């Protein structure tokens, strides 16, 4: 969770400057890492902070590529998935 003070072995720090507020609808909490601009939400404050930790880790490149089975579950044919790397994309220049 974001209030953890020491994550030994992590290359990137977790969120440090956080804003936490009740969303406009009043039924979800919104957590924002003010340093990166990454925002997440959850039904509780704890869930919003845990989701923010995961989102910030993704922002810093943590995570794993989806397996072929994961892609199929999302309706993507792995044999037709030729997106390649972001470095090779004209969209993300």
List descriptors.
about 90 residues; alpha+beta; Double Stranded RNA Binding Domain; 3-stranded antiparallel beta sheet
In short:
The protein has 93 residues and is of the alpha+beta class. The protein has one domain: Double Stranded RNA Binding Domain (2-Layer Sandwich). The chain has helices at residues 45-59, 68-73, and strands at residues 18-22, 29-33, 39-42.
Could you characterize the architecture of this molecule?
This protein has 93 residues and is α+β, with helices and mostly antiparallel strands. It has one domain (1-78): Double Stranded RNA Binding Domain (2-Layer Sandwich), CATH 3.30.160. It has helices at 45-59, 68-73, and strands spanning 18-22, 29-33, 39-42. Strands 1-2-3 form a 3-stranded antiparallel β-sheet. The longest helix is centred in the middle third of the chain and has 15 residues, at 45-59. Residues 1-23, 57-93 are annotated as: Disordered.
How is the secondary structure organized here?
Elements: E1 18-22, E2 29-33, E3 39-42, H1 45-59, H2 68-73
Antiparallel strand pairs: 1-2, 2-3
Number of contiguous helices: 2
Strand order of the largest sheet: 1-2-3
The computed structural class is: alpha+beta
- Shape by Cα distribution: elongated
Radius of gyration equals 16 Å
**Helix fraction bin:** 10-25%
Q: What is the CATH topology classification name?
A: Double Stranded RNA Binding Domain
Which CATH C-level class is it?
Alpha Beta
CATH architecture: 2-Layer Sandwich
First-last Cα distance: 33 Å
Mean pLDDT: 79
Name the poorly predicted regions: 1-9
Pfam family, one: DUF7387
Protein name: Type II toxin-antitoxin system HicB family antitoxin
Organism: Halorientalis regularis
InterPro entries: DUF7387 (IPR055811)
